[in-house]
Design brief:
Structural class: mainly alpha
Order of helices and strands: EEHHHHHHHHH
Largest sheet: 2 strands, antiparallel
Distance between the termini: 50 Å
Shape: globular
Helix content: 40-55%
Length: 262
């Protein structure tokens, strides 16, 4: 490597049927853990850019906060054992669930894309991607409502003042028109809060879960990490999935085979 360290690329066994190939990359030769951590982040960046450059898919598989783990190269790995297993429903349960879901009415397009995002998030290879995916499944469910005539009147006055201002460039003025008009309706967060009250009138936990998930996703996407390093993305994603499954079950008007409860 340019830094003087040594890189080792190994093929790692994986369960049959997963598709693609799985590799592990090790970097050896660091004097300090901080240097190893920085090199791990740079290697992650390099592999992602390589995938984009060559235009192929790449999934990073890890269970910690960062894709790269620090280890002591002189410490023995000891005895290792690997294996895989499959968990599945019995055939009669699958056919019964299929029959039940076939009887459901055609769902709105927003609900359909929400369920698609939910299902695909379960197949992500790492916890952060799973968390971002499942929280994103909430957004198509939002249906922002108008905030009323008084707000509409206030927005109209703001737009009139904007048109009369000669100091604002036309291209910026056009952008501001669109942003001001958005204030006539609820934000996504406001809409989800109202809908949680309608979907779960007897439970405040649903909105608390959604609100916390949105805050954590903003932290992750805007700063690249959770503000609290002890935040467990897998636990947070599990809580959001419980809310989403309860919403989907409510729409289906029938209990799911795996019960959806909050």
């Amino acid at each position: 490597m340019p830094s003087g360290t040594f890189a080792k690329v190994s093929v790692v066994e994986q369960a049959p049927g997963l598709g693609g190939r799985r590799f592990e990359i090790k970097l050896d030769g660091f004097a300090r853990a901080t240097a190893a951590e920085a090199a791990g982040r740079h290697l992650t960046q390099t592999m992602l850019l390589l995938a984009v450059s060559l235009d192929f898919g790449l999934r990073l598989e890890y269970v910690t906060h960062e894709p790269a783990n620090i280890y002591e190269r002189f410490r023995s790995d000891g005895l290792t054992l690997s294996g895989y297993g499959l968990a599945m429903w019995p055939q009669h349960a699958v056919l019964k669930a299929l029959s039940d879901t076939l009887s459901c009415a055609e769902m709105p397009s927003g609900l359909l894309i929400s369920i698609e995002l939910y299902c695909s998030s379960l197949l992500e290879a790492n916890r952060r991607a799973q968390f971002v995916g499942v929280v994103s499944a909430l957004e198509p469910l939002a249906a922002p409502a108008r905030l009323g005539d008084s707000v509409d009147g206030f927005i109209a006055r703001m737009l009139a003042d904007l048109e009369q201002d000669v100091d604002i460039p036309p291209d910026l003025k056009q952008s501001m028109r669109g942003r001001v008009r958005l204030l006539q309706s609820e934000s996504i967060r406001q809409s989800l809060r109202r809908l949680c009250g309608e979907w779960f009138p007897d439970s405040a936990k649903a909105w608390q879960t959604v609100d916390r998930a949105y805050r954590l996703r903003s932290e992750l996407l805007h700063s690249g990490a959770f503000a609290d390093p002890d935040t467990d993305a897998a636990v947070e994603a599990s809580e959001v999935r419980r809310v989403l499954r309860a919403i989907y079950q409510r729409w289906a008007k029938q209990p799911f085979k795996a019960p959806a409860t909050i």
